[in-house]
From TrEMBL:
The lineage of its organism: Eukaryota, Metazoa, Chordata, Craniata, Vertebrata. The gene is Rgs5. PROSITE patterns: RGS (PS50132). Inhibits signal transduction by increasing the GTPase activity of G protein alpha subunits thereby driving them into their inactive GDP-bound form. Binds to G(i)-alpha and G(o)-alpha, but not to G(s)-alpha. Its main location: cytoplasm. Keywords: Cytoplasm, Membrane, Signal transduction inhibitor. The keyword Cell cycle does not apply. It comes from the Eukaryota. It comes from Crocuta crocuta. Residues 50-166 form the RGS domain. InterPro entries: RGS, RGS_RGS5, RGS_sf, RGS_subdom1/3, RGS_subdomain_2. This is Regulator of G-protein signaling 5. Coiled coil: none annotated. One of its GO terms (biological process) is negative regulation of signal transduction. GO terms for cellular component: cytoplasm; membrane.
Length: 167
């Protein structure tokens, strides 16, 4: 069973075929299956109730990301991860550069991976980007987190990958 899950996960994490899919909006290495071992059952069961638990576990994050890719809805997770990476930047110049990339990739209207946020949140984010700071994307990131928690997490928990994992 574990080999079957590993095979399915490996297939989902393969490199993209088209050049368009190779355009990565931020410094992200090509994905590889998580090198961590399968989590204990009790830990995996906690994922049903906590998006944080999934995001903090390499195996859970890889599975969640694969699931979202299979549904063509990975932009929310990619945005959330980009915001986490952005928050760690210390250099104002690098922060401004990264903020622009995140905005162009995820926030602006007709962005390649536009996330679904309301106009109020978009306006706040745009105002925050006048002078980029580690908290510039906080409001938008919290909205996307809430969306993933309310929408993506329940679908993931019902997915074949998760169901196989907890058997």
């Amino acid at each position: 069973r574990a080999k079957e899950i590993k095979l399915k996960l490996g297939i989902l994490l393969q490199k993209p075929d088209s050049a368009v899919d190779l355009v990565i909006p931020y410094n992200e290495k090509p994905e590889k299956p998580a090198k961590t071992q399968k989590p204990p059952l009790d830990e995996a069961l906690q994922w049903r109730d906590s998006l944080d638990k999934i995001l903090q576990n390499n195996y859970g994050l890889a599975g969640f990301k694969s699931f979202l890719k299979s549904e063509f809805s990975e932009e929310n997770l990619e945005f959330w991860l980009a915001c986490e990476e952005y928050r760690k930047i210390k250099s104002p110049a690098k922060m401004a550069e990264k903020a622009k990339k995140i905005y162009e990739e995820f926030i602006q209207t007709e962005a390649p991976k536009e996330v679904n946020i309301d106009h109020f949140t978009k306006d706040i984010t745009m105002k925050n980007l006048v002078e980029p700071s580690p908290s510039s994307f906080d409001v938008a990131q919290k909205r996307i987190y809430a969306l993933m928690e309310k929408d993506s997490l329940p679908r993931f928990v019902r997915s074949e990958f998760y169901q196989e994992l907890i058997k």
